[in-house]
Design a protein that fits this description.
The protein has 690 residues and is α+β, with helices and mostly antiparallel strands. The protein contains 29 helices and 18 strands. Strand 16 and strand 17 form a beta hairpin.
Length: 690
C-alpha cells in the first residue's frame, strides 16, 4: 500500500511552476503591445522605456526588481509589466512563479488569462479582486486559486504604482531640496541622475536624416568620421544648490539667485559637436526654435529672455563644451520642477536647413535633489478582502461558536443520543455546504508547506491574511490541537471528511456491506498516510513546487473546491477514494490523508482529556471499539489520540445505560432495588466490581 501511494504521488506530478528566466524581446512585446523599441533598464525603480515611432510611450519593468514581489509561500514571484504614460496597464507576462496552482486544478493559462483582465486598467484607481468582483467593476479571481490571484494582483499593482509614482504619474514624489549642498564632480552628478545625456554619432545622424529623404552633410564637406560625435547634449534641473553651486561656484550662484524670483526654476543645458542646439539667430528673433521643454500635455517654448549664457563652469571634470547655458522658467509658467519633463531638440540638416530631426531627452528629478514627501500609506490588500468576506466570516464565527459550545457541553449532549445525532448531522452539513462548497475553506497540507517555507524565506503575515476564512480556521485548529487534539478539525471542520461521512451514512441506508479490517492490518495501513506525509515533506526540502504537485494526493480541491470539474485523472482519483469510503468508513482519512498525519503528530501534546473511559472498556466491553467509525480505539479500550476524530460516538455509548454494560448492570440493580422496595423486601448487597 505504501508503495502504491508513492507511485501515485509520482503519477500526479505535473508542471505547475514556472522556472526563473530572463525576459526576451517577445516578452517585452507581450508586456507592451505596439511598442517598436525598448531602451535599457534604468532608473529607480528600474524600468525600460518603450518607444513607438521614436517617441517614448511608457515603461516595461520586472515586479521582482521593482518591489521584490513574493508568492504565497514566500518564494520569488516575477512579472514583466507594461505601463503607458497615461498610467494604464498594457500587459503582464509571468517570468517566474511557484504558486500551488496545480493542486487547485488550474494551470499557467488560467493565470495568464487573469492577468490579461488588467490591460487598460488605470493604476491610480482601486481594483477589487474576488469571486463575483467583475459584476461590481472589479476582476474575478481564478476559480479555485483565489490566493494565487490575490498574490498576482498585489505584485502587479504594487510594482506598477511604484514605477508610476517614480515617473510622476501619481503626482510629485517629493519637494525640491533647495538648501542641501555637497561638493560633487561632473561625473558624480551625471551618475546620480542630475544630468541626462544624449549622444548622436555622425553615422546615426546621417541614417536618421536619410530615413526622412534628406542629406545631412554637404558634398563640399566630405564625409566626416562616422563614429565621431555629431551632437552630444546634457540636460538637467539646476535649481537645487547641489547642482547650481557645483556648476557655477558659490559667488556666481549667489549673484544668480539674487536675480531670480523665489519660485523660478533653472534648467541646465550643455552641448558639443558639429551642430548647435541654440542656432545663430536667437538673439535677433527672440526665440530658440530648436529647443522646447515638454511636461505632460504642456509645452514651454524657449525665448531669449529665459537664457542665461555661461562663460565657464566651476565644476570639476566638466567636458569641453561648445555651448553651456541656463534656462530660467518663471514661477508663473506653471512648470513643476518635481515632476518629469523632457527636452525637445529640433536639429536642421547641415545641407538642407528645411529638413529637420526631432530628438528628446526625458528627465526625472533624481532622489538626491528631492526631499521625500509624506505619502499616504496604502491600505493592505488583505483588509479589503476581509471586508468583502464579512458575511462568510460572520457565518464561520457563528459555526465555530456553535462547535465550541458542543465540545464544551458534550457531557450533557451525549446523554441524549438523538440530540447528539441531530447536532452532528447539522454541523457536518454546515461544514460541507458552507465551509466546503460555498466558502471553499478546505484546509490542505499545502497550507502547512507554504507556512513552513515562508518561515525559511521571509515570513509575512499579509500573504496569509489574504485568505481570511483559511486564516481563521487554522487559528481555531491550532488552539484545538492544544486543548483536544486533531479530532476537532478532522471530525467536525473538514469538508471532505464530512462528505465521506455522509456517504458512509448513505452506504448504511443502502445496506452496502462494510469491510471490518482486522486491527493488526488497520494498524499497518494507517502508517501509509505518514509515509505520504514524509514523501511530500522530503520533496519540499528540494523543490517546493514538486512537493505542492505531490500534494495532489489530497482530493480536496477536486471534490470540494472545483466540484469535480477537474482533470480526468484527478476526478478519477477523488471518485475512487469516495467509492472506497462506501465500504471502509472514511477510508482516505484513515489511511492516506497527509494533513491528518501532520495534525496527528502533535496530538499527544494536548492538555486536556475530555473523552471518558472506564476500567471495563476493552476488558468486559468492546462496544465502543467495534462501533468507532475510524477504529481509533485499541482492543485494550484506549483511544488513540492521533486517530480519534472526536465524533463523540463512544461518549454517547459511554452514557447510554441501555448499551454500556456497566451502566446496564447499574440500571438493572437500581430497578431491582426499586422493585424490592415496593414489595418491602431487603435489597441484596452490591458487587464492588460495578
Amino acid at each position: 500500500m505504501a508503495r502504491f501511494a508513492l507511485l501515485l504521488l509520482l503519477a500526479l506530478l505535473g508542471a505547475a511552476a514556472t522556472a526563473a528566466r530572463e525576459p526576451g524581446p517577445e516578452d517585452f512585446r507581450r508586456a507592451f503591445p505596439g511598442a517598436e523599441a525598448f531602451g535599457p533598464v534604468e532608473g529607480d525603480p528600474p524600468a525600460a522605456t518603450a518607444y513607438r515611432a521614436g517617441e517614448p510611450v511608457g515603461w516595461v519593468f520586472s515586479s521582482w526588481m521593482t518591489v521584490r514581489s513574493t508568492g504565497y509561500s514566500g518564494a520569488r514571484l516575477d512579472l514583466l509589466v507594461g505601463l503607458d504614460r497615461a498610467g494604464r496597464i498594457t500587459g503582464a507576462v509571468i517570468l517566474e512563479q511557484k504558486e500551488p496552482i496545480l493542486v487547485t486544478g488550474r494551470d499557467q493559462r488560467d493565470l495568464e488569462a487573469f492577468l490579461a483582465r488588467y490591460v487598460g486598467r488605470d493604476v491610480r484607481a482601486p481594483v477589487e479582486v474576488g469571486r463575483g468582483a467583475a459584476a461590481r467593476g472589479g476582476i474575478d479571481a481564478v476559480s479555485g486559486a483565489t490566493m494565487t490571484s490575490l498574490v498576482l494582483h498585489d505584485a502587479l499593482l504594487k510594482s506598477a504604482r511604484a514605477v508610476a509614482r517614480s515617473r510622476g504619474l501619481l503626482g510629485p514624489v517629493g519637494r525640491l531640496d533647495l538648501e542641501s549642498f555637497a561638493p560633487a564632480s561632473w561625473s558624480e552628478l551625471e551618475a546620480a541622475g542630475a544630468f541626462v545625456r544624449l549622444r548622436l554619432s555622425n553615422r546615426e545622424a546621417e541614417a536618421a536624416f536619410a530615413r526622412r529623404g534628406a542629406r545631412l552633410f554637404p558634398e563640399a564637406m566630405g564625409r566626416p568620421d562616422p563614429e565621431a560625435t555629431f551632437l552630444e547634449v546634457w540636460a538637467g534641473l539646476a535649481t537645487p544648490a547641489r547642482v547650481a553651486r557645483n556648476l557655477l561656484g558659490e559667488r556666481a550662484e549667489a549673484r544668480l539667485r539674487g536675480e531670480l524670483a523665489a519660485d523660478d526654476q533653472l534648467v541646465f543645458l550643455a552641448a558639443r559637436g558639429l551642430t548647435s542646439i541654440t542656432g545663430a539667430n536667437w538673439r535677433r528673433t527672440g526665440r530658440l526654435d530648436r529647443l522646447a521643454i515638454v511636461q505632460g500635455e504642456r509645452t514651454f517654448p524657449v525665448t531669449a529672455t529665459m537664457v542665461r549664457p555661461l562663460e565657464r563652469l566651476a565644476i570639476e571634470g566638466a567636458p569641453e563644451l561648445r555651448e553651456q547655458l541656463l534656462l530660467v522658467l518663471p514661477a508663473a509658467s506653471g512648470f513643476r520642477a518635481e515632476e518629469p519633463w523632457r527636452l525637445q531638440l529640433l536639429l536642421p540638416s547641415l545641407d538642407e536647413p528645411a529638413a529637420t530631426l526631432l530628438l528628446e531627452l526625458p528627465y526625472l528629478p533624481p532622489a538626491i535633489l528631492l526631499r521625500r514627501a509624506a505619502e499616504t500609506v496604502a491600505e493592505p490588500a488583505w483588509l479589503a478582502v476581509w471586508r468583502s468576506r464579512s458575511l462568510d466570516l460572520a457565518l464561520l464565527a457563528a459555526g465555530l461558536f456553535a462547535l465550541t459550545a458542543i465540545l464544551t457541553f458534550q457531557p450533557l449532549i451525549v446523554r441524549d443520543r438523538r440530540l447528539w445525532q441531530r447536532l452532528r448531522f447539522s454541523f457536518l452539513l454546515f461544514t460541507l455546504l458552507f465551509l466546503g462548497f460555498r466558502a471553499k475553506a478546505q484546509l490542505s497540507i499545502v497550507n502547512v508547506l507554504t507556512f513552513s517555507q515562508a518561515l525559511l524565506t521571509g515570513f509575512s503575515w499579509d500573504l496569509f491574511l489574504l485568505e481570511p476564512l483559511i486564516f481563521v480556521l487554522w487559528t481555531y485548529v491550532a488552539l484545538a490541537l492544544v486543548f483536544l487534539g486533531r479530532g476537532v478539525y478532522c471530525g467536525w471542520l473538514c469538508p471532505f471528511g464530512a462528505l465521506q461521512e455522509f456517504l458512509g451514512m448513505l452506504a448504511a441506508r443502502l445496506r452496502i456491506p462494510q469491510l471490518a479490517l482486522p486491527f493488526p492490518l488497520h494498524e499497518r495501513l494507517r502508517g501509509v498516510k505518514f509515509a505520504v506525509l514524509l514523501a511530500i515533506l522530503g520533496l519540499s526540502l528540494g523543490a517546493l513546487e514538486q512537493a505542492i504537485q505531490a500534494a495532489r494526493v489530497e482530493p480536496f480541491k477536486t471534490a470540494i473546491v472545483l466540484r469535480f470539474v477537474d482533470a480526468p485523472l484527478a476526478v478519477a482519483w477523488a471518485a475512487a477514494l469516495l467509492a472506497a469510503g462506501l465500504f471502509v468508513n472514511r477510508f482516505f482519512c484513515r489511511y492516506l490523508c497527509p494533513l491528518g498525519a501532520a495534525l496527528a503528530l502533535p496530538a499527544r501534546l494536548r492538555q486536556f482529556e475530555w473523552l471518558e473511559r472506564r476500567w471495563q472498556c476493552g476488558q468486559k466491553c468492546r462496544i465502543c471499539e467495534t462501533t468507532c467509525p475510524v477504529q481509533a480505539i485499541h482492543p485494550d479500550g484506549k483511544i488513540h489520540p492521533g486517530e480519534c476524530i472526536h465524533c463523540l460516538r463512544c461518549q454517547v455509548n459511554y452514557a447510554d445505560d441501555r448499551l454500556c454494560p456497566p451502566l446496564v448492570e447499574r440500571r438493572l440493580r437500581a430497578e431491582r432495588r426499586e422493585a424490592l422496595a415496593r414489595t418491602g423486601r431487603p435489597a441484596p448487597a452490591e458487587s464492588s466490581e460495578s
